[in-house]
Amino acid sequence: MTGQIHNSRFDDDELRSALADVVAIPVTPFAEDGSVERGTYRALVRRLVDGGVRTLTPNGNTGEFYALDPEERRLVTELTMEEAGDEATVLVGVGHDLPTAVAAARHARDAGAHMVMVHQPVHPYVSQDGWVDYHRAVADAVPELGIVPYIRNPRLTGQRLADLGELCPNVIGAKYATPDAAAFAAFARDAGLERFVWVAGLAELYAPAYWAVGATGFTSGLVNVAPEVSLRMRDALRACDYPAAMEVWEQIRRFEELRAADQSADNVTVVKEALAALGLCRREVRPPSRVLPVERREEIAALVKAWSL
């Protein structure tokens, strides 16, 4: 049974509906001096909202979460709320050590956000009981908000998410990002297929396969570049029109393969390069990401041109 989320802006049904959609992960543009470029960030968020996107995740991995300092992460949250206003549901990424994650969740709440996505703990020693404890501490700190664990650990069992859901009724969804559709299907059913909203966390390339076995939303970095393309895939999947969804899949396949290559080494860089080709933001990223070589930039520019944006 799903617990009711007491939030002055969105009720439980609205939060769940927002997750069953394209969940956009905005990039974080940097100015020439390396700081967050506020005006460009606002413009990119505005472009997403004007393009029909209704769910935003500031401080996601496509936003270079781990390369931002705490003040910058707070800034990105605040800019998103100011620009999106009441036009989008905002799901703020939080993580790092537990006190930092809790403080970020409380900041998100105070800034007006509706949910938080809890990044997969990166500690080298993660027990399954400890995973539950970590997420429970964040969920208990902000009972007003919806909580969405970001699951990247293939060894985590669906039962552990079920246990967390029993303890914390505000855990309403899961972003599942292990590249195995069969494992996802089993995990979702072990955790509770109807209890949680299942978001395919590996974007458009995996969305059709995950949708077929239980996902009702998917994350996207591509949406920064081409909102209409991501929304077209969403609409096809909602209609169970898999041939139409696969037409979109074929259109964006090379772009997403470039992002996924070498264990996603250029995941963010490819998106920013496409935005640079459109004149929308600078291509610069922060280490450990890198700017692409010229020949790769030319390929991405050609892909974007072929989409007729």
From TrEMBL:
The keyword Flavoprotein does not apply. It comes from the Bacteria. It holds the Pfam family DHDPS. InterPro entries: Aldolase_TIM (IPR013785), DapA-like (IPR002220). Gene3D superfamilies: Aldolase class I. Keywords: Lyase. The keyword Lyase applies. Belongs to the DapA family. PANTHER family: 5-DEHYDRO-4-DEOXYGLUCARATE DEHYDRATASE 2-RELATED, DIHYDRODIPICOLINATE SYNTHASE. This is Dihydrodipicolinate synthase family protein.
